[in-house]
């Protein structure tokens, strides 16, 4: 690492973990109890010990067009939901200007997440409803922590008037991953050459279909 | 015979191609992987074959990597740079003081020279080297989805998933002349139902992380030690947690041994600035050049106190570790066969770049492992296709949605740092689909080229590498730029297409820079027609 790089790193106000891990990588003596300022000092001293090097410029970014600006919105009126892990889902929205003005004229804009596991959702029959108030001008997405893994969710963006919720956009349904072994005791087995799948204990004979000539050491089959 | 061992090496790099520049900083990812991992591994396969040592390895080669193997401009840069490294080694032989360093400089010189002659022997295209061993039956080559897009996050746009799979199968077939039997799903990203898409494209097996079996819809009778069949008839192999831990673990894994080469001491950083200047990045930023004189010594040893590397000691360590690993595998299969009364299948998948790039002696470790294993008969090597033939019954399961990333799910590719990507990807995929349908019968060659290039830009934007890099914080600026660039190029081309105002020069430039999947057909994105060739 050059002196400039190190100084640039320090000027970005890195976290204590970042400074510590860098100091360790550089082979500096970092003690467990050290405060951030102490590690900082260590790195600053180290930086001073390095020769100044002339670096012409940052690596050129010519091919990847520089300073590319992407649209802020596509006006697509979309509410898209993603599972992240068994207990977290992510939802974002992209609004048309009509929908935006319709929603922003409301006092209470609300994002809802429904647990719709094993049901056909009719707008009222969700197992659970999670709700978050939304400040449209500053928020475009949201993460919901969800209690049930291996469950189906869908989201709606809308508004509330006198406690009653009016949906404006509805998302796709997502399934959160499972994080526990199945409680099912069923077992299905596919046996080669048979057209049916056998349900129950594993068919133990025959298992190894072909004889392996080098199976000398085994004797167990 | 008490058990099977399936070694899987997953090889992937995102497509990095900057043909109008000298060796680009990020093109060094390719250079490093080729010189440190791919060629040393291929040469190791050659040695095993020459010595008639039996070995079986499953190698997945991502379509973007295959396209880089074929990229003559990139490979010319690789060759020129390697020649410069030979020159640097020669200077080093004069510069260094001790006998040990002189020997090492010579070692590197010969190593780079042998890389150059290997490249020449395969006409500059490493796919040839892999194909040779596939033909002799020691290696089973499999594909990966097109640009290594993380499929669980595309689930709500099934046409996007299909395009990733279809292009992955097609690109593989173009490079090798035969279709892949199996697939490595990027980051082991799986969701229930994905198996049906694989089936549709003729893929017979894939890999998942251990917990995909543990948390499956029914309990896996053989734990992770026998592939299962999904309801659509595709086989899934699950990672053995012990093998990964033994090799990879940051604390107890083999690569941490003090005799192995220290990754973070490199001439590119240690050398006098003016002296190394011609060999580092053009801008003057110091980078690794791959000439390293030190060994890990111990984890506690600070970088500037590391001792000199001894190739001989490192080779001894690689041999010791190979024997230790073999003994652990034997103990494992002997225990498992007691438990199950059936031979277990141990699946050990790794990133190829672990061997050689991150763990310099990794290829020799594997070589010794196969040599030692040839002296016994309890553990047998097999490819997934062979395993599927070996057994007569398979449990039918739906693996759990999962990945092999941090935490085991999708967090690495979707979190507060990189979630801004999703709205753009979702949007351009939908637009691509609509345009593919609208222009399905298009005959104007210029418009067809625009549409094909749009699909290339879309696929390149989907690489899981970009959100991964943003999460881990390594080359963030480059990754952010790549996503934005590809999305922007897509949107520009779309504008030109619908306004019938196509800039032929710009199109030609994009076709030269983002030149993946030469024979791609945008029509595969059209919903009602998709998969006709499947």
Strand order of the largest sheet of chain A: 4-3-6-7
The termini of chain A sit apart by: 59 Å
Domain count of chain B, please report it.
Answer: 2
Q: Got a strand count of chain A? A: 9
Share of helical residues of chain A: 10-25%
Helix content of chain B: 40-55%
CATH architecture of the largest domain in chain B: Alpha-Beta Barrel
User: Which pair of chains has the greatest number of interface residues, and how are they split between the two chains?
Assistant: A-B, 79 and 82 residues
Look at the structure and give the mean pLDDT of chain B: 96
Poorly predicted regions of chain B are 529-534
CATH superfamily of the largest domain in chain B: Glycoside hydrolase 38, N terminal domain
Number of helices of chain A: 4
- Report the sheet with the most strands of chain B, covering strand number, pairing sense and barrel closure: 6 strands, parallel
Shape of chain B: globular
Task: Tell me the number of helical segments of chain B per DSSP (H or I, 4 or more residues long).
Answer: 19
* Radius of gyration of chain A, taken over Cα atoms and rounded to an integer in Å: 29 Å
Give the class of chain B from helix and strand content and strand pairing. Answer: alpha/beta
CATH fold type of the largest domain in chain B: 7-stranded beta/alpha barrel
Explain what the structure shows:
The complex is a heterodimer of chains A (221) and B (534). Helix content of chain A is 19%, strand content 29%. Chain A is of the alpha+beta class and 221 residues long. Residues 52-63 and 205-221 of chain A have low confidence and may be disordered. Chain B has 2 domains: 3-390, Alpha-Beta Barrel (7-stranded beta/alpha barrel); 421-525, Families 57/38 glycoside transferase, middle domain (immunoglobulin/albumin-binding domain-like, Up-down Bundle). Chain B is 49% helix and 8% strand. In chain B, the strands form 2 sheets. In chain B, strands 1, 2, 3, 4, 8 and 9 form a 6-stranded parallel β-sheet that branches. Chain B is globular. Classes of the chains: A alpha+beta (221), B alpha/beta (534). At the A-B interface, strand 1, strand 2, strand 7 and strand 8 of A face strand 10, helix 15 and helix 18 of B.
